[in-house]
Amino acid sequence: MQAMKRHRLFTGTVTIAAVSAFVLAGCAGPTAGSGTSPGAVPTEGGKISVWFPGTDPTEIALVTKKIVPNFEKATGAQVSVTYVDWSNISTKLNAAFAAGTAPDVFGHGPAAVADFVTNKRVEPLTNYIQQLSEKDRSDMSSALQGGQVNGVQYLVPLSMQGSLIMYNAADFTAAGLDPNKPPTTWEGVRAAAKQLTKRDASGAITRSGLLLPSQPIGRQQTFAALLLSNGGTQLNKEQTAAAFDSQQGVAALDYFTSLFNGPDAVSAGLGANYINTPTAQQPIVLGTASMEFQTPNGMQQIVAANPKMDLRVMMPPKFEGADKGYAMGGAGPGLMINADSKHKALAWKFIQYMIAPDTSVEYTQGIGAVPPRSSAAETSYVKNSPILKAFVKAAPQFVPNPNVPGWVQIRDTMDKFLEQALNKKMSSKDALTQAAAAVDKILKANG
Amino acid sequence: MSVVVRPSPKGARGPASVGGAPPRRISNPRRRWTNASRSGLLFVLPAALYVLVFQLAPVLYGLILSFTKYSPLSRSGPTPIGVENYARLLTDADFGNSLLVTGRYVAQVLPITVAAALGLALLVNRPFRGVGFFRSALYVPHIVSLTAVSMVWLWIYSQNGLINEILGILGLPRQSWLLDQDTALNAASVMRIWMALGSNMVLLLAGLQSIPKELYEAGRVDGAGAWGLFRYVTLPGLRPMLVYVVAMDIIFLAQGFAEIYVLTQGGPLGSTTTVNYLIYTQAFQYNQLGYASAMAFVLFAFIAGFSLLSIRGLMGRQK
Amino acid sequence: MRRNRWGAGLILGLTTVIVLVPFLWMISIAFTPEKEAFGSISLIPSHPTLGNFTTALVNANLIRALLNSAIVAVVAVSANCLIAVMAGYAFVMLPFPGRTPLFYLLVSTTAIPGSVTLIPLFLIARGIPLVGGNDIVGQGGSGLLDTLAGVVLPYLVMPMNIFLARQFFSTAPIELSEAARIDGAGEWRIFSRIYLPLARPLVAVVAIFSFTAVWSDFLWPLVVTSSARMQTVQLALARFLSAGNVQYGPLMAGAVLVTLPVLVIFLFNQRSFISGLSEGSLKG
After folding, report:
1. CA-CA 20 to 30 A from C88: which of A184, A248, A399, C114?
2. Any bridge partners for residue A329, and if so which?
3. What is the pTM of this model?
4. Structural domains for chain A
């Protein structure tokens, strides 16, 4: 007890000394040096730091145990990798940029790129891309497009993303529908959904004919997919004003709202985030939905856990009268180079290594994503998976969200008004008109 | 703060017991710097210096930021814009709504957590076989990993989750707890009560343990019943700890964020968007740290006001 | 009287069961194969497995994280139990001019949301002089970033613990100090030999709260550390939280493993609640 007390006293003294030292030093910390001393890594050659968004265990194992050691062996460089979970990557990056300690290479989703660009935090990569072979560039062209802001490349996507409708073939057959001829229009999807929907005695839906994401963020993506498939766009061509408050937009939102409301509703659980629920709780697995939007990764997990179910993927439907069906997707998360990095050449080498054909397939297979190269269609990973085949086939129909500064805020603003319409608190027209006004204001403030 | 004469331990039934403010020793009112007060300053100094540098400095920096436009990503640093952020708050309907949500949240969680925690603390205050088990079990929610347990809560509230399955067995209709704007905030409140119960109980238990046992004996000699002992011995003795629990609960509940973040992300229809949730969004999703800071200081004003009021209120009843 | 006791036992038992429900399901899922997680409301897994625990320990490097968190927690607990308790004691027992405004100033810092103070605190951690390659004015290096000292930095003195200590000592008997002073004891001696031993319930609570705060924090360690060597337990658990691909089994297994040490410490610490001031005051 005596010794312990003395120990405590000691700890106290040390702390007091440390604190006083800090105070004596004039509190230089909080005010000094935002952005003046870039690069967390000391300047000894050949050392870069990389922050990956997401914490997929397969990805971590692959990158830290294989890709990075191989890269280090090939180049003699040193790479320190940090994984940051998606929900906090922005927070960690913001703090690091404010303190000038951001890594040489970091990853994020395309939605965040424009804000980094506006603040001149990321290196333009167009010149680096130009040095790739013609074959390489065309192989990756659709992925690379998603990483551009105003025509300049900033992000190199590591995978492709998107959502397609997955359907239960057995439900189709039981309802008198042909699972080999799924609907090709949204009107057709609606009609099929009506036949697939089941209700209990009280009229409550026990099996949704169709489930589209209606949770925060998800509903903006659903709306955007419907809007595009109806021939509309989210922003005008110059990306300076909202364009979703068009006739096509109103019709798309009316369609979305009608799925959940009224006596002809075909979807239950407005606002529920079924996409991220455990596999065993997925509506299509529980039999509480016959068609649902899913990601490639989600579909692969569902199929792996339920090999006996006949689950198939539908190509993006269009609205009658529109040219083509679209789905939200395109370039997925990718890597950027810190504009203040002292090792840009090495940083680019690392990115190049990550997108090399073999690494890229291994990487996307590890995380269950769609490879960013169209040549990947010939690999066994894609060929052996009907799901990936469908996603690769639908790739030309995937459209990303616009890369404009303030996009996250724009998305959330749209989301808020869409929610009002989906809950019948506002008409589709009012919701979109008000959302457009608010979005224009944000675009102006950021541009 | 009023000057309260310090009672002797045996005088807890007397007229002037301790409230939120510490009693001031009145031994030497004229000579302000006695040896004891000099030692007092020395005792406080390490903590004060530390808090000044590592807690107060960041807060002051935030206060400065609230008068600026600042994105942490920008190279130019904060741009002063005067009171613009505060003026903008006045017309920000979302902020107004979030203040109301936060107020309702505190108002419905606070009384239940404190009352339930007090009840449980009284129950586990007596020594009996296995009391340690109960104390630990009730404290589990406070120590269990929030990220992990929030998955369980999401499932409990989900369409095919525990509550709905039980309702189904009982033949009652299922509910979309987190998707209905009438139930979402209540659902989050239940999770918060669950989280806060254990720590409040531990505090009140420590408070109960610090009440001298001879006061109860004296009370019994005076013929007081169970209620009388609770009213005239337990409550007055527990008052300082109760003041602490209520003040701290107000401070932390008004900053409610984690349970909202994991359960509802502020929805549906903004019905669970607390001020702190809005601050987080502004600061780290929209990179508007200046505006977020202004929100934080308005929230701070409300918190300070309400916690001081509650401290006064709990003291006042004594007089 | 007896019926009363039964009623009390029933209420206590029932509340405990309800409070434990989420934790029980965590344990259950920790033993459930991944693809069956949350598949039924049964508490007993139909195909129990230990695989999740292996995955948690191996993939997340949980042992290292436990060690890191333990180091950080011990430092935070010792600092709070001494510095914060000492300060709270002085605010009551050794009054000095200006103590009330100072007290409110210190405590008011807890009422500002962390989103606002996170970046300034990060700048401070980077700018600590003479560590991590920094010069005397805190420039040139990375300060306490990516160190365990950086992780513990915001927790050394938690203002709420000062508040708690002040409230606690406000019911402590003063006669003891008066008597000791007459005997010629110094203030440090009076505090450390007389009041600190009496304040065991307080020290127990401060220790538990400091421990819990450090142990369960996620955002600060995430922001301040970068390398795998500095991971704390909550960061290690986040490995299984990959968006859209949460590994429920290993996550729950890891969370149970991470909760156990705290539970053990709590159980151990509880003896302090049994005795303390109430006994001591008898002597007074």
Report:
1. C114
2. A162
3. 0.88
4. 47-159+332-393 (3.40.190.10), 165-329+406-446 (3.40.190.10)
